[in-house]
Amino acid sequence: MIAQANARTGLAEQLAAARQEGSSLVLAPVEPAGHSFLLACLLSSQREFAPKSRIWILGASPRHRERLSSELAHWAIEPVLLPDPSEVPQDEHLADPEGEADRLAAFDALSSGATVVLASADAFSHPAPTKKMFAERG
After folding, report:
1. Rounded CA gap, 105 and 114, in Å?
2. Rounded to whole angstroms, how far apart are CA atoms 98 and 44?
3. d(CA 114, CA 104)
């Protein structure tokens, strides 16, 4: 189904042209129910001309990112969910350890070569752990 959609729309060619020109490819408006299918088509097309590149998909809400992750699994795409950083408490207590563990697990998956990432803009507000840190732990 994805191959047929890509063939009919020429999506791979549009992505290649945008990349060569250094421009953006705008596909809008897209209803929320179609987000995962469109992403699956884009990822399939993108893999044809840049198979080792990492794709970052930014979603506004955790609920939306969780929904996309679950729907992308139906298209055999297993994205890494990069959680937002925990709020740093003002009273010198540790941040949420479970949230931080999820965040570190996502960075570990990224350091192992994961190519599709779902995140929010807030996920970039704190520095990522270094590769050296993972090497020391493992």
Report:
1. 12
2. 33
3. 14
Under 8 Å between Cβ of 35 and 68: yes
Its pTM stands at 0.77
The predicted pLDDT at position 133 comes to 75
Amino acid (one-letter) located at 89: P
What stretches of 1-138 adopt beta strand conformation (E)?
A: 55-58, 80-81, 116-119
Residue type, 105: A
Q: What single-letter DSSP state applies at residue 71?
A: H
**71-88 pLDDT tens trace:** 999 999 999 999 888 776
Which residue is listed with tokens 């060619």?
13
How far, in whole angstroms, is CA 6 from its chain's centroid?
A: 20
Q: Are 71 and 36 in contact (CB under 8 A)?
A: yes
Can you point out the beta strands (E) in 17-103?
55-58, 80-81
pLDDT at 130: 80
The span from the CA of 60 to the CA of 9, in Å, is 27
| Collapsed DSSP state (helix, strand, coil) of residue 53 | coil
Handedness of CA 60, 64, 69, 74 (dihedral sign): negative
Token code pair at residue 81:
């969910």
